[in-house]
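Encode chain A's predicted structure.
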Amino acid sequence: MDLSIDVTLKGKLDPVIEQVTEALKAQGFGILTRIDVDKTLKTKIGADFRPYVILGACNPGLAHQAISARPDVGLMLPCNVVVDQTGTDECLVRFIDPGAMMQFGDLGNDKTLARVGAEAKAKIELAAASLG
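Encoded structure for chain A:
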C-alpha cells in the first residue's frame, strides 16, 4: 500500500512550499504547522541536512467529521506534506494518502472514516495534480 502521493517540482524549497500551500488551499486545506527539519537537526544535534520541511495540512470540515466519528483518529492528523529539496533546483513533494491513513489498525472498519479518508484523498490528489 502506497502511503504517499508524490510530485517532483522544479524550484527551490520556499517557492515550492508556496505553490503547495496554494494548491492545498484551493482544496480547502490550510497549513497548521511547519517543521523545518534541516534547521531543527542543525540546532539540536549539529547535523547538516538538505532543506526538508514537513507541513501539517488540515481541512477543518473533514477533520471535524473524522474526530467526531472517532476521537482517537486525531493521532493521525493533520495530513502531513513533506517538501524535500532533492536537487539544486528540484523538490520532491510527498502528500500523505489520507485514504491509506484511515486504514490504520481498525480505523478502516469505520464507514465514516473510510468515506472521509476517500474524500480527503481525492482532494489531495487534485492538489497534487494541479502542481504538475
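The mean pLDDT is 95.
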